[in-house]
Amino acid sequence: MTKTAIVILNYNGRAYLEKFLPGVIKYSKDATVIVADNASTDDSVAFLEANHPEVQLIILDENHGYAGGYNEALKQIEAEYYLLLNSDVEVTPDWINPLVSFLDSNPEYAACQPKIKDYNHRALFEYAGASGGFIDSLGYPYCRGRIFDELEADSGQYNDPIDIFWSSGACMLIRSEVFFNARGFDQDFFAHMEEIDLCWRIQSMGMKIRAIPAATVYHVGGGTLNKSSSFKTYLNFRNGLSLLIKNLPLPHLILKFPIRIFLDWLAALKFILEGSFNHATAVLKAHFYILSYSIKTLKKRKNTSATPQSMMVVFEYYVKKKRKFSDF
């Protein structure tokens, strides 16, 4: 059994593999590099077979999404640690060693992530993880270095390793045993926030998660679904509500869920006023899904002992005009 398996889930990402995979191979000598192809329709598989025979290839029968794709692939991989890595990530020379060393020395921690910066604007933190993820009492994710769409420049202000609420799925090192004990990703999420759901469940199991900024990677972001996609809007609103139903302790859920629904409707109204009718419709579709599958989602509630931060990031951002993590 290999110690660390770097697993890149690919869907029509041939260009990203060509650009970023050589760096992963070069700077990950002590790990096994694996690409799990999520039934791509481009020439990703042919490219890998022709140019990177040293990389192990898992070919999935259909596009299972991010959540299901990793679940299916990891069943086929024996390793102590899984390093889940997006195909659009540029790694740096000493990116993996601080992560592995930390988990080796701290058995009470289930997972960790590096500092994640913006590939196209390299002085900035990147949206999907920055220097560690958190979630507020209404289920809104935010990061050290990113509040909603506000990205901070990295001046070393978040270089200290700290406990976080969630590790980014763009680059996450996780113990394989914990991944399976937590039942992996929720495949109903398909993509977006599935890593937050997993990390929430892991914390309810009594384990912790850490940001290790001594390791740094650069993430392109939006490689599969960009910001303009109404399907991405649908997934974000749908999965954000599913997160709360599945994981929030019942007294908090009863109190906070109606507030979150109201704020979602305000977001839909904002989309309408901006002329983004497809995004407004996506919010309504997300709510229809939650209503239709509420019983199914409620049945997934197990241990809900972990609670998010008590503050409301929406209030702090829009009312108090706080734009930086350090302002909270």
Describe the fold and architecture.
The structure is a single chain. The mean pLDDT is 95. The chain has helices at 14-26, 44-51, 65-74, 97-105, 176-181, 194-204, 230-247, 250-273, 277-292, 294-298, 313-318, and strands at 2-10, 32-37, 56-59, 79-86, 89-91, 109-118, 133-135, 141-143, 146-147, 150-151, 162-163, 171-175, 208-219. Among the domains are: 1-87, Spore Coat Polysaccharide Biosynthesis Protein SpsA, Chain A, CATH 3.90.550.10; 230-323, no CATH class. By secondary structure, the chain is an alpha/beta fold. It has eleven helices and 13 strands. The strands form three sheets. Strands 1, 2, 3, 4, 5, 6, 11, 12 and 13 form a nine-stranded mixed beta sheet that branches. A two-stranded antiparallel sheet has the order 7-8.
Low-confidence parts? none
> For the CA atoms, what is the radius of gyration?
19 Å
- Number of helices in the DSSP assignment: 11
Fraction of residues in helices?
A: 25-40%
Strand content: 15-25%
Q: What's the end-to-end separation, in Å?
A: 44 Å
Q: Tell me the major beta sheet.
A: 9 strands, mixed
- N-to-C SSE series? EHEHEHEEHEEEEEEEHHEHHHHH
Count the strands? 13
Write down the overall mean pLDDT: 95
3D shape: globular
Structural class: alpha/beta
How does the SSE layout of this entry go?
Layout: E1 2-10, H1 14-26, E2 32-37, H2 44-51, E3 56-59, H3 65-74, E4 79-86, E5 89-91, H4 97-105, E6 109-118, E7 133-135, E8 141-143, E9 146-147, E10 150-151, E11 162-163, E12 171-175, H5 176-181, H6 194-204, E13 208-219, H7 230-247, H8 250-273, H9 277-292, H10 294-298, H11 313-318
Parallel strand pairs: 1-2, 1-4, 2-3, 6-13
Antiparallel strand pairs: 4-12, 5-13, 6-12, 7-8, 9-10, 11-13
Helix pairs in contact: 1-2, 6-7, 7-8, 7-9, 8-9
